[in-house]
């Protein structure tokens, strides 16, 4: 029996670290999940255990190489962003992988923005809302100013996906999907590092930028295979859609955060858009992707629990609750509605008295109606003059019948689809270097779509 050609993809999240093997039809033929106990940095703040992560990559690959039924042709990585690994001349980490949730010193932040033109001007130029440590460029700035001796020892600061790639290729590189995501490093207008990077002398600490679809020869022993340079996970998750669909679209990726992504809108961010939590991501071909964000997944979780407790129900009941148009009609007549023409970061549902609803079904429909109206306002920020006619929704809300019907009704002039795909970030990382490991054409059925017609819902 011939060994099946596969690509190995490490998908590294904050909580779960996953390894997948995909065959040439992009089916998962092997997977492993690991979780590591966090360590702490010098201030006692929790952070990723780099040593555990490094050993896990090597151990997992050694295991895979021993599986005679598979032949690993390539390895790639998708990982969370806003995290830097600091390497010395010998290629060894010299500092912890600082947590992007670590509070940023206010004085250092104030001094930085005063020095470089003020928050609004700087945020507009770098398409990076003021996010403290989530602006990974400011992590490097902090290291320089708070730990100058340690900073001097740093040869390269690599984003996490590129560090993982370095472990196997031995080559240090930078990648635009990591640099371009709220790092405060990139000047989007001039398509280069922002001038502050040069003025601080930090350009010397940043490895050369490689194309996201480049594959390198492997240094780590095994059968002959190629190594991708790694991708920021949100940008990787967009790749299957870019590969499969040429007509302009918006992707609403739903989870704890609901992020709308428009790869067909590169218009500069305005002050108003920045204030409404818009930013740019960078897709794997180097083009900006305008994005807007809502914390709707978290709000949905909290308010569903509140409804369940008030009506003495199990919250699990709402997972598969069917859409009832007549309930929406009654709610429109009896309850105040979230204004979908005005942007807001949170819905009015949290302040709604649950005693005004006849039952839990009615209350839950109102919650989803409010969240959809929020989403409409957020997504419209990205549409602009772009010729977008399709909206894809993936993640948790794509499985919510009420949400999808109401969204289709709100965007009645567009085609609205629920999209499902196993492990989108990992698939994207595999697709980015398709030509280096896969002799077959890219399959057209990677993404499963379910169409929602506005005619099946009601006008809201």
UniProtKB/TrEMBL annotation:
Residues 7-195 form the Carbohydrate kinase FGGY N-terminal domain. One of its GO terms (molecular function) is kinase activity. One of its GO terms (biological process) is carbohydrate metabolic process. SUPFAM superfamilies: Actin-like ATPase domain (SSF53067). It holds the Pfam family FGGY_C_2. Residues 247-435 form the Carbohydrate kinase FGGY C-terminal domain. Keywords: Kinase, Transferase. PANTHER family: GLUCONOKINASE, SUGAR KINASE. Belongs to the FGGY kinase family. This is Carbohydrate kinase. It comes from Mucilaginibacter glaciei.
């Amino acid at each position: 029996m011939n060994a099946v050609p596969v690509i190995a993809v490490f998908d590294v999240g904050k909580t779960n670290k996953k390894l997948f093997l995909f065959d040439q039809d992009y089916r998962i033929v092997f997977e492993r999940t690991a979780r590591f106990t966090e360590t702490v940095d010098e201030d006692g703040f929790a952070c990723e255990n780099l040593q555990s992560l490094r050993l896990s990559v090597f151990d997992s690959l050694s295991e895979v190489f021993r599986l005679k039924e598979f032949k690993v042709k390539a390895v790639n990585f998708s990982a969370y962003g806003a995290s830097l690994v600091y390497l010395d001349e010998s290629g060894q980490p010299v500092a912890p992988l600082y947590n992007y949730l670590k509070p940023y010193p206010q004085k250092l932040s104030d001094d930085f923005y005063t020095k470089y033109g003020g928050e609004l001007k700087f945020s507009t130029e770098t398409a990076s809302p003021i996010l403290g440590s989530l602006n990974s460029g400011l992590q490097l700035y902090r290291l320089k100013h708070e730990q100058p001796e340690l900073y001097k020892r740093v040869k390269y600061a690599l984003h996490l996906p590129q560090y993982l790639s370095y472990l196997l290729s031995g080559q240090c590189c930078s990648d635009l999907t990591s640099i371009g995501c709220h790092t405060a490093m990139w000047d989007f207008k001039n398509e280069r590092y922002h001038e502050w990077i040069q003025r601080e002398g930090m350009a010397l600490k940043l490895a050369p930028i490689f194309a996201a679809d480049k594959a390198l020869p492997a240094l780590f022993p095994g059968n002959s295979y190629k190594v991708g340079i790694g991708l920021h996970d949100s940008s990787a998750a967009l790749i299957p859609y870019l590969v499969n669909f040429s007509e302009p679209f918006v992707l609403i990726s739903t989870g704890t955060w609901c992020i709308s992504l428009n790869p067909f809108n590169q218009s500069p961010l305005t002050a108003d858009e920045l204030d409404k939590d818009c930013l740019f991501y960078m897709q794997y071909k180097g083009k900006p992707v305008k994005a807007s964000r809502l914390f709707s997944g978290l709000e949905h979780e909290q308010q569903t629990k509140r409804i369940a407790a008030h009506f003495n129900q199990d919250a699990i009941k709402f997972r598969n609750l069917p859409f009832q148009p007549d309930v929406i009609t009654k709610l429109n007549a009896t309850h105040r509605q979230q204004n979908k023409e005005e942007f807001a970061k949170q819905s009015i549902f949290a302040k709604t008295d649950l005693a005004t609803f006849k039952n839990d079904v009615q209350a839950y429909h109102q919650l989803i109606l409010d969240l959809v109206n929020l989403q409409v306002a957020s997504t419209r920020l990205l549409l602009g003059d772009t010729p977008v006619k399709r909206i894809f929704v993936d993640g948790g809300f794509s499985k919510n019948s009420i949400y999808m019907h109401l969204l289709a009704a709100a965007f009645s002039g567009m085609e609205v689809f629920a999209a499902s795909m196993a492990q989108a970030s990992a698939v994207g990382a595999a697709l980015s270097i398709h030509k280096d490991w896969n002799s077959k054409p890219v399959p057209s059925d990677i993404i499963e779509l379910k169409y929602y017609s506005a005619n099946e819902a009601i006008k809201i």
